[in-house]
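(Deposited chain)
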Amino acid sequence: MIELRKETNAQYKLKVGRSKTGLGLYALEPIPKGKKIIEYVGKIMTDESDDDKNSLYIFNINKKVDIDGAPRFNIARYINHSCRPNAESDTYKDHVWIKSKRNIMLGEEITYDYGKEYWNEYIKPKGCRCEKCTEKKLKPLSTKEKRQ
């Protein structure tokens, strides 16, 4: 069975814009903690219809069903990974919602943790560029280091 779900069901005003890692999804209004932000949509794939599981936008729902969110109408695909995310995924049947973990401010990039499997295969080899990880790399020099 292949179904193409196009309606993103965005619950808030959002925009795609430039981020540190390419493109990202940004809040155009404040989003309270615990609220549905947007549905992750695309081609629903089952084991039988498993044409292309090589897409970077595959969202695994369960052992039998995945969503290929590669089509550009799925603006949730622009949500970047973060090791300190402000959102999380919530699956119900064959739907995936991105929900806020905390209050999200106007203009803030929406992020969630892509999970261990994606991290190990795609992020770890190149290095994580999320805000938390780049903060570690940009620590200010101590007084002792400055004198040297």
Observations:
- The chain is about 15% helix and 35% strand.
- The first strand starts at residue 2 and ends at 4.
- The CA atoms of residues 97 and 119 lie 20 Å apart.
- The chain has a mean pLDDT of 84.
